[in-house]
Specification:
The chain is 13% helix and 31% strand. It has 166 residues and is of the alpha+beta class.
């Protein structure tokens, strides 16, 4: 009787395994576990060939020039050398040093000591004398010896000065 029970269990197990259409890879049955010494009859599935993804083209940033303030434009921009003849229109900031014609101004460098919404301070000096203007607002002229300086506009920390002989 014992042999028939084992035989019935073996037939039942074989039938259940054969009827099962989808093997459960998570099951741990000892019926047909391949080992390292037992070759398996499975066919390897080919891995899909990877398709190269196109690399997006990133545009290179274009170099930008020194930003100019909004509003009126200075005819000579930041070209302070254009003032050597005492005729120019330039952007200035606090600390700007502008070369001017000594025979007109009485000094050779116009120094901007402050640019603020409340006005522009500038001046020049020699070993013996100094001249300066403070709080110059847009639309006003100031004469430094024979150099006439007009504040054209103030925009935040930048101003436009127009220089010419008086």
């Amino acid at each position: 009787m014992r042999t028939s029970t084992i035989l019935t269990a073996a037939v039942l197990l074989t039938t259940l395994t054969a009827c099962s259409g989808d093997p459960d890879p998570a099951s741990n049955t000892a019926v047909s576990t391949p080992t390292a010494s037992t070759p398996t009859a499975t066919t390897p599935t080919p891995s899909p060939t990877p398709t190269p993804t196109p690399t997006p083209i990133t545009p290179k940033p274009t170099p930008t020039a020194k930003p100019k303030p909004a509003g009126p434009r200075a005819a000579d921009g930041y070209n302070y050398q254009s003032c050597r003849d005492a005729v120019c229109e330039i952007y200035v900031k606090t600390g700007s040093r502008v070369p001017v014609k000594r025979s007109v101004a009485g000094f050779s460098t116009l120094v901007v000591s402050r640019v603020a919404p409340t006005g522009v301070d500038f001046g020049g000096s020699t070993a013996n004398t100094s001249v300066s203007a403070g709080g110059q607002q847009p639309g006003f002229d100031f004469r430094l010896n024979n150099l006439k300086v007009t504040t054209v506009a103030i925009n935040n920390e930048t101003a436009i000065l127009h220089l010419r002989p008086a």
